[in-house]
């Protein structure tokens, strides 16, 4: 579904992705973790070409991201992206946030798009907020709307870039629950997150990155019980007991 | 001792009153056409100025600098006295059959004001966080569609106060159209003065009407901003 082969990327002189090889199969839930500045956000952003890559090959849903023939807008319509800062459209109500892309890009009728949006809002537990505006919602609610907005395009892949990092602790659970529910439907998901509980319970595989390199790739049980790399051991130790 | 006797009746009734009313009608038409066209053109230029293609940006920049930095009166004269010299005869014939004075004034006002509006809208666009564009592109919208559905609607809201200024300027600048014989409000006030020597009354009347027009434009924009653009904000 997603295949990185020898992918490199630079920001000016900074080598942010240094030879990434990664294969995500259909229906797989992959968690990417690592210290800040490790390149994990950049990695996930290359998948829908918010960041273009400079070397290597990247195939997403059968489309070659380095080919000039690939219609990037078509690819992006198939790939849902959830941001750390939600990025809802502040001038549109919740329902309009969700229906805009299906109506304008998928050419779904307004009535049908609204019905689908209501189903999605039910699913994320926010049906009562259909006419609210983003500024009237809490962070957790905004993020759940953002997930519903991404799902409204019926994507084949969902990408989450630190979806709970901007949230107050008591709101993290509600967003993770939605993600867990989504994973149980067989959605292909790549999540950059520090939520190790989510990684352990929901993911099929954990990828650990540092300095633009994938240092470790393992089943969650294996990764948490017996991390191989020193950097991974250190990272886990700090994450589990940040006071030391 | 003041020798002048005021006669306000000339501007509140009768023939001269009708002149002023017909002048106001032309001023309203000119302002309305100018505001709508200048806004659309300004929006277009603002987007072009932000294009990824350098030649397109250059054209937009040249347009902006050229029309912002030359006097409006010269531009009005150019369209009225200059442009038709280089147009084909058939076009000229058609132009003469229409109200060419009005058209020349409308074109000059539109283009002149659009340059200022474009700059205001552009700074509005730049104030929208770049993540909004990323969210739109991630959903599969092209650059232009992202602008259309997500960036511009937000930018225009921010741009309302400076836009009101530009609209007011346009309405007031429309008085320059009298210089090429457009029979708008200032032209008619001048006529009333010529016929009656009641310059004080005539131009007081014109002043009051322009003031009223500005107040109405400001109120309408305010209402639009509150009721249509930001219904959810207090």
Automatic annotation (TrEMBL), chain A:
InterPro entries, per database record: AAA+_ATPase (IPR003593), ABC_ATPase_HisP-typ (IPR030679), ABC_transporter-like_ATP-bd (IPR003439), ABC_transporter-like_CS (IPR017871), MetN_ABC_transporter-like (IPR050086)
PROSITE patterns: ABC_TRANSPORTER_1, ABC_TRANSPORTER_2
Domain of life (superkingdom): Bacteria
Keywords: ATP-binding, Nucleotide-binding, Transport
Any Pfam family hit: ABC_tran
SMART domains, alphabetized: AAA
Any GO molecular function: ATP binding
Domain spans labelled ABC transporter: 2-236
PANTHER family: AMINO ACID IMPORT ATP-BINDING PROTEIN, PHOSPHONATES IMPORT ATP-BINDING PROTEIN PHNC
The family this protein is said to belong to: Belongs to the ABC transporter superfamily.
Full protein name: Amino acid ABC transporter ATP-binding protein
Lineage summary: Bacteria, Pseudomonadati, Thermodesulfobacteriota, Desulfuromonadia, Geobacterales
From TrEMBL, chain B:
UniProt similarity note: Belongs to the binding-protein-dependent transport system permease family. HisMQ subfamily.
Highest rank taxon of the organism: Bacteria
UniProt KW NADP keyword: no
Membrane topology recorded in Swiss-Prot or TrEMBL: Multi-pass membrane protein
Database matches in PANTHER family: ABC TRANSPORTER PERMEASE, MEMBRANE COMPONENT OF AMINO ACID ABC TRANSPORTER
Stated name of the protein: Amino acid ABC transporter permease
Coiled coil: none
């Amino acid at each position: 579904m997603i295949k990185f082969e020898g992918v490199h990327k630079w920001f000016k002189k900074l080598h942010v992705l240094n030879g990434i090889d990664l294969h995500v199969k259909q229906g797989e839930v992959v968690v990417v973790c690592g210290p800040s500045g490790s390149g994990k956000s950049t990695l996930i952003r290359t998948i829908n070409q918010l960041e273009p890559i400079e070397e290597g090959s990247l195939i997403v849903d059968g489309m070659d991201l380095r080919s000039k023939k690939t219609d990037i807008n078509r690819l992006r319509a198939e790939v849902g992206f959830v941001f750390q800062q939600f990025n809802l459209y502040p001038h549109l109500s919740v329902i309009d946030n969700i229906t805009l892309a299906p109506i304008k890009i998928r050419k779904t009728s307004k009535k049908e798009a609204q019905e689908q949006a209501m189903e999605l809002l039910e699913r994320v537990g926010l049906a009562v907020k259909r006419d609210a505006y983003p500024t009237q919602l809490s962070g957790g609610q905004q993020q759940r709307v953002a997930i519903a907005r991404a799902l409204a395009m019926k994507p084949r892949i969902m990408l989450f870039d630190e979806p709970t990092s901007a949230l107050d602790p008591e709101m993290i659970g509600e967003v993770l629950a939605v993600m867990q529910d989504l994973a149980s439907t067989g959605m292909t998901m790549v999540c950059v997150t520090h939520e190790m509980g989510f990684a352990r319970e929901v993911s099929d595989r954990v990828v650990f990155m540092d300095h633009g390199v994938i240092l470790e790739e393992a089943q969650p049980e294996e990764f948490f019980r017996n991390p191989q790399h020193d950097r991974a051991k250190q990272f886990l130790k700090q994450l589990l007991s940040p006071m030391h | 001792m003041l020798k002048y006797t005021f006669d306000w009746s000339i501007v509140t009734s009768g023939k001269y009153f009708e002149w002023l009313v017909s002048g106001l009608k032309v001023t309203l038409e000119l302002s309305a056409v100018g505001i709508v066209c200048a806004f659309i053109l300004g929006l277009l230029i603002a987007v072009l100025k932000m294009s990824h293609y350098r030649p397109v940006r250059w054209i937009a920049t040249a347009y902006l600098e050229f029309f912002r930095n030359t006097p409006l009166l010269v531009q009005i004269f150019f369209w009225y006295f200059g442009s038709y010299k280089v147009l084909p005869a058939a076009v000229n014939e058609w132009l003469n059959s229409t109200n060419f004075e009005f058209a020349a004034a409308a074109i000059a006002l539109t283009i002149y004001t659009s340059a200022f509006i474009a700059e205001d809208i552009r700074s509005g666009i730049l104030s929208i966080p770049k993540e909004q564009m990323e969210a739109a592109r991630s959903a599969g919208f092209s650059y232009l569609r992202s602008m259309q559905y997500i960036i511009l609607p937000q930018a225009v809201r921010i741009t309302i106060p400076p836009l009101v200024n530009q609209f007011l300027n346009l309405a007031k600048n429309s008085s320059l159209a009298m210089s090429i014989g457009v029979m708008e409000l200032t032209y008619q006030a001048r006529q009333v003065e010529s016929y009656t020597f009641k310059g004080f009354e005539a131009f007081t009347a014109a002043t009051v009407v322009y003031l009223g027009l500005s107040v109405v434009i400001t109120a309408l924009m305010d209402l639009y901003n509150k009721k249509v653009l930001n219904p959810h904000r207090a």
